[in-house]
Amino acid sequence: MTDLDAMIDDEQLVEWLTAQRWFASKTRDVAEVTVAEILTLREDPPFGIGLLEASFHAGTHELYQLVLGVERGRVALDALTSPPHAAVLADLLREQTVCESASGTIEFHWLPDAPPLPERTTVRPIGAEQSNSSVVLDDAFVLKAFRRLEPGENPELEMLRFLSAREFPNIATLTGWYEMHGDLLTATLGIAQEYVSDGRDGWELALDELGADPQRFLDRLHELGEVIGRMHAVLGSDLTDPDFAPEEPAGEGLSLLTATIDEEIERLFIRLPDDEPALEPIAGRGEEIRDRLQMMSHVGTGGRLIRHHGDLHLGQTLRTPDRWVVIDFEGEPARPLTERRRKRSPLRDVAGMLRSFAYAASASEVLRSNAVPADWEIRARETFLEGYFECMEMSLLPAGQRAIESLLGIFELEKAVYELRYELDNRPQWVSIPVAGIERLLEEPIG
Amino acid sequence: MNPAQQWFEANPLWFKTAVFYQVLMRGFHDGNGDGHGDIVGLREKLDYLQWLGVDCIWIMPFYPSPLRDGGYDVADFTNIDPVYGTVDEFRDLVSDAHERGIRVIVDMVMNHTSTDHPWFRRARHAPPGSPARDWYVWSDTHDRYTDARIIFIDTETSNWSWDDVAQAYYWHRFYNHQPDLNFENVEVQEAMLDVLRFWLELGLDGYRLDAVPYLFEAEGTNCENLAPTHAFLKRVRAEIDAAYPDTVLLAEANQWPADVVEYFGDGDECHMAFQFPVMPRMFMALRREDATPIAEILRQTPEIPDNCQWGLFLRNHDELTLEMVSDEDRDYMWNEYAKDPRMKSNLGIRRRLAPLLDNGRDEIELMHAILFSLPGSPVLYYGDEISMGDNVYLGDRDGVRTPMQWTGDRNGGFSRADFAQLYAPPLMDPVYGYQAVNVEAQLRTPTSLLRWLRRFIALRKEHPVFGLGTLDVLETTNPRIFAHIRTFRDDVVLCVHNVARSAQAVELDLSGYAGRHPVEMFGLSRFPRIGELSYLLTLAPRGFFWFTLEADEEDAADD
Q1: Model's pTM, two decimal places?
Q2: What is the ipTM of this complex?
Q3: Could you tell me which residues come within 8 angstroms of residue B460 by beta carbon, excluding any fewer than 6 positions away?
């Protein structure tokens, strides 16, 4: 038992954990929270990484990362964003420390080609803490620690390492990471990457510019399309790395996808409320939507499968004065990590981005009171896709424009159906956005 | 530690609510184009199995084998027949499956080996009385253990065969090329434990233990279910529990329920055992339009320890086994379900589910409904989810081991090899052939059996009561109705099945649940409130209803 272990008050853990913003399962009934493991990294003053295990009444559990340090003689349960403790992590990264303990090893890595991390680093927490926690080091790097841990390499580390090694310019380049190899878990704990100090959130930028200068934003979207096209081309370019080599889909792959979406549509329509006026354009059209999905699924094999962003939308981009930067390569946080690492069609990313244009147009009107031109979303789609196809390696996509459009339509429908369910449950005032998306797919001519 | 632990919640009782899927690797999917299904091919189909909702794959024997008994004649326990791939590929398969939340168990034949196994070669060449000879059961005469029955009566006349090399008879409960190991010998016991550890170290989640009742022999007994056999299995369980938690041992003991339950011990022997006798009775009930045989056998089935579970199936993979029925019932079953004598095999019927049920969709659904409603974990046999047929003209039980039908393309999408290279011809007849029956077509058809079964599996898994709940078979005045109630904590589920070809009405005494509303589980329709009087239901031919019995919210609010 370490000092840190002795200092933790187990009684408080449940209340403390469930109050954290990054706790993923707020709606679930927590049975117990225990410190599953502490790996001590420094003895004096005590400093280490703890794994917190939350058990649920259903018999399942989740693991979370804590950084444990001592402040004024008391243990700080979560010292991750506290500057003096984050500075210790920075030291460990710089020194590429390997800490062995009885139950496992924690390895810190700093890439040889990365700019050096200075000693006595300045540390600044980033306010917007969500599913992960980040601090800025030396105004040059971001250290992002993953909170909920699952076995296996985090896709964000893999993707950034792959793209950084190929000097893809539109990301915040990877500079280091730390990971654990243990009996309980082998997982990525955190990553360090270049800090994009002059970037603006792509979503906020869209909302602003849609009022001020919609045409200018369209031009930017052409460029964004090019960036995503190039990114996908790079991600599908290495035939030797088994984690990234493009794959031919299994014969039934597309059918599995459409069968799953088809059943989601069926389930959703059984439960659609009768009294929601926003649903009017698609009310009673469940069968029509399923027929449309069926027609769209006749696209041959569906192109090749590659690693992709996995949760791409405007909010996952930054705009600096001279370039777009794509961020957050973790995939959809609600899905299991192994699923997020799976190769899929790159058009899934494209569909996500297209759906976010629909949201941006509406949000700009609602939140910024902007009068967005009626055809803006259509032009945004066209512009983005134009840029995308100019730079994408087309052999990764299904053969022929019609097949591409159909497969894209399937992914858009999947997204829109998901959005509809989400908005009905959480934000009824936004229901009309996915409804319009589904309606558009229905109206589109076939072939 | 078991490498699976990182992927799964620590849950030693996972098998109690699991749906199993039995795979004949040779027939599932060919990854390298040589005409035989293999490990790589199976890996490519994990997305499909995950989509279907399978919790655990059971892979039939893949060990090096002369293949004279479908691979149950093992020539090397710690290796893989090269036609399937390598041990490393197998490790990758297991870890890919784990990533998808799917566990993997394999067949383990403890009782015997092939005559090709090096242990047997060594034994037959070793001098009588030597330690190496003692790994098998030898005799100078063939009249020992005469009370033991002969299992494969079609082919074997004795459980003893003469070995010219050893100049002695050797003991075999199955084919004469499958000599029984001598479990009296401590070295054999240790060797078998090493074999079990070998695969568990690779991440495997457990074993289906083939033919376990026969490990030990004793004069004056039928040589089945003997005390030392149970003692050895308990030892296996203890060693596995200590080193590999979350592992399952599933006993294949084709015995009457009272004998099978002994394989659970006091919850310290096998975790699971197949419920053999229910299966033929379901088919009998369907043909006779009388549910009594099912209800009867369930009433005769003893309680089992809380940490144990039955394995349920509609077919014992290669045949509809008829050992656990009376001679009269067996004749009836043969008459009804095996009109062509080629369909018979030993004491069973070597046909697939769909042809047994004349490809009747209502019948197939009803049989799954009954199976899924019973206490236990269902085991599906590959291909049955798309109602694949069989080929009675193939030898032995190969007729139900034909290639999985993935698409309507060449070789049914099973293999890129030339047709002549395939290990067995795929079915090509107009009703069951791959052009009519395949995964791809059924995925694209919302009303297909495959899509229905997937929804049905999902439904069962939403309700742990089916794996964990108690069973209360209801008395009905209409023998054509099989109705029962499952209860687990607050969940109460009523299942009513009509085994008749005609619509039926039934009155059920549900007075114990007065005040509750049945809610039909598929469409969530609310049925009339249960009162003190008997509850009337009408069912379509071969129809069934599953309800949750829900307390009335208004009543509950009044409490």
Answers
A1: 0.92
A2: 0.87
A3: B19, B372, B378, B466
